[in-house]
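Re: the 139-residue chain
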Amino acid sequence: MAKASIKTLVLSLIAEADEVAKQHEVYHEEYVCKANDKLYGLLSNMLAVCLDIEASGESARVVKEMRSKLKAVYNIKTQANSRMPSIVVRYIVRSSRKTAHVYGRVVDPDREVPATFTVTTVAIPAATNAVGTRILSPG
């Protein structure tokens, strides 16, 4: 292949890659960023439910009822030694064990925050009794 045609080929492939990069930027802005905002709101609401259950003084009864309903209605089994936040998140998510596990780690009020994450306290909707909640984001 002649040098001129190789250079043209290289420039053509770079232009093609640049076009896909632009598509990725649009995708990231339109879908990923919006989805992250929605996810953070959802996680915040999950944490609010956990805090409300914890504050109620009846967490054992609530967890027992959630476990019972998960088994009877959704045919989802939970381990007897699962912590309350895990059961609450599993009850809310209802499908994916892996997703419930990851979300449960994020919303666990007793979990220590890794040093690589920033903690931001935000207001929770007035419908809850909690004053604020923590949102974890990579530092």
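Residues 121-134 have pLDDT under 50 and may be disordered.
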